[in-house]
């Protein structure tokens, strides 16, 4: 049953309703990975409520899964335009999860979803510099000079990118394939890096995050991470 967010926080024994309202205004509370407003109503049985990145006492068991995201869906818990979201791909028996980072609408590949706020914050924090590897299909050829520019760092509107690892994986049918590994998490970073050096991206797929890779997981399918994998993620 949905109730006002501040009431749910107070009922968990963390603080008074008035203090809960102050925490919400201060941005200390998230619901399903997003900042709520004071009028927000939540159902503790299905919604993931975090205060300072920590779940409420008595919250659902922590679950983290790896999804092979297809193109044509958004990496959000809901979409005002009515487009399919990554949550629509998950089986209904799972607790409410939220994405760790984002892959844009036309990008496919490895995406983590979790209700573990501490893990999500750890992976997203810039100081941990978790490696992310993408397979990129480029229209035309990629010269050695362009590859060196990508490796050294590219000037974008939000600053120069950190050095990247770039490998040419081959070419066919007028396309070249690159494997690009970065340690940052800027919005649409790989696409913007390629555009900045004159490359046209026709396909983009994240194939690795830290030690995790897609393996033979089919597009649109998911698997739940085991305890050992969670521990390794927290140590990255």
TrEMBL record:
<dbReference type="GO" id="GO:0003723">
    <property type="term" value="F:RNA binding"/>
</dbReference>
<dbReference type="InterPro" id="IPR042092">
    <property type="entry name" value="PsdUridine_s_RsuA/RluB/E/F_cat"/>
</dbReference>
<dbReference type="InterPro" id="IPR020094">
    <property type="entry name" value="TruA/RsuA/RluB/E/F_N"/>
</dbReference>
<dbReference type="InterPro" id="IPR006145">
    <property type="entry name" value="PsdUridine_synth_RsuA/RluA"/>
</dbReference>
<dbReference type="Pfam" id="PF00849">
    <property type="entry name" value="PseudoU_synth_2"/>
</dbReference>
<dbReference type="InterPro" id="IPR036986">
    <property type="entry name" value="S4_RNA-bd_sf"/>
</dbReference>
<dbReference type="InterPro" id="IPR020103">
    <property type="entry name" value="PsdUridine_synth_cat_dom_sf"/>
</dbReference>
<keyword id="KW-0413">Isomerase</keyword>
<dbReference type="GO" id="GO:0005829">
    <property type="term" value="C:cytosol"/>
</dbReference>
<dbReference type="InterPro" id="IPR000748">
    <property type="entry name" value="PsdUridine_synth_RsuA/RluB/E/F"/>
</dbReference>
<protein>
    <recommendedName>
        <fullName>Pseudouridine synthase</fullName>
        <ecNumber>5.4.99.-</ecNumber>
    </recommendedName>
</protein>
<comment type="similarity">
    <text>Belongs to the pseudouridine synthase RsuA family.</text>
</comment>
<dbReference type="GO" id="GO:0120159">
    <property type="term" value="F:rRNA pseudouridine synthase activity"/>
</dbReference>
<keyword id="KW-0694">RNA-binding</keyword>
<dbReference type="Pfam" id="PF01479">
    <property type="entry name" value="S4"/>
</dbReference>
<dbReference type="InterPro" id="IPR002942">
    <property type="entry name" value="S4_RNA-bd"/>
</dbReference>
<dbReference type="GO" id="GO:0000455">
    <property type="term" value="P:enzyme-directed rRNA pseudouridine synthesis"/>
</dbReference>
<dbReference type="InterPro" id="IPR018496">
    <property type="entry name" value="PsdUridine_synth_RsuA/RluB_CS"/>
</dbReference>
<feature type="domain" description="RNA-binding S4">
    <location>
        <begin position="3"/>
        <end position="64"/>
    </location>
</feature>
<dbReference type="InterPro" id="IPR050343">
    <property type="entry name" value="RsuA_PseudoU_synthase"/>
</dbReference>
């Amino acid at each position: 049953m949905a109730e006002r967010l501040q009431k749910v926080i107070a009922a968990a024994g963390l603080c008074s309703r008035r203090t809960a309202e102050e925490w919400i205004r201060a941005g200390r509370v998230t619901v399903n990975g997003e900042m709520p407003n004071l009028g927000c109503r939540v159902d503790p049985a299905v919604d993931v409520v975090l205060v300072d990145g920590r779940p409420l006492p008595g919250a659902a068991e922590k679950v983290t899964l790896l999804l092979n995201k297809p193109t044509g869906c958004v990496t959000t818990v809901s979409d005002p335009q009515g487009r399919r979201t990554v949550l629509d791909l998950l089986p209904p028996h799972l607790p409410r999860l939220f994405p760790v980072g984002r892959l844009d609408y036309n990008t496919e590949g490895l995406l983590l979803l979790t209700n573990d706020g501490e893990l999500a914050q750890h992976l997203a924090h810039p100081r941990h510099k978790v490696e992310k590897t993408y397979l990129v299909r480029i229209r035309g050829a990629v010269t050695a000079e362009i590859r060196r520019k990508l490796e050294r760092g590219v000037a974008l509107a939000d600053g120069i990118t950190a050095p990247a690892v770039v490998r040419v994986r081959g070419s066919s049918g007028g396309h070249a394939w690159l494997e690009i590994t970065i340690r940052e998490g800027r919005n649409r970073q790989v696409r913007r890096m390629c555009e900045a050096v004159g490359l046209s991206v026709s396909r983009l797929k994240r194939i690795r995050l830290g030690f995790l890779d897609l393996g033979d997981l089919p597009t649109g399918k998911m698997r739940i991470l085991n305890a050992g994998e969670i521990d390794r993620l927290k140590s990255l």
